[in-house]
Please model this.
Amino acid sequence: MYQANALTNQYLISQAHSRTGWQINLRAVNRFLVVGIIVSFVVYLIGNNDLAVKSFVLKDLKTKVSELTWQNKELEVKTTDLSSYQRLSQRSGELKFVPATIVKYLPVNNQLFAKR
Model:
């Protein structure tokens, strides 16, 4: 029974070949399909690997951004503290600066300045 079906299939395929004028090589088609599936799978794996790596890099960069933001806020607070009037007056006392009591201004010749 199996041989009869195989012979019938071969007969139908040979008749199809004789009508179309060209012969289909099933082994070549199967090899082409297998190679295509393997190449597609490899491309899929490479794409997923690239996506995973980019995800880790993005996570690291987000962590770094949050750390730098925190450092920036700390430095702003430190700058504000160091430039406060109380801190500056305390530091000037430590350095033995004396306040200016008598201020004398230099006379300015008006001709040296640009006029409108």
Observations:
- The CA atoms of residues 92 and 99 lie 9 Å apart.
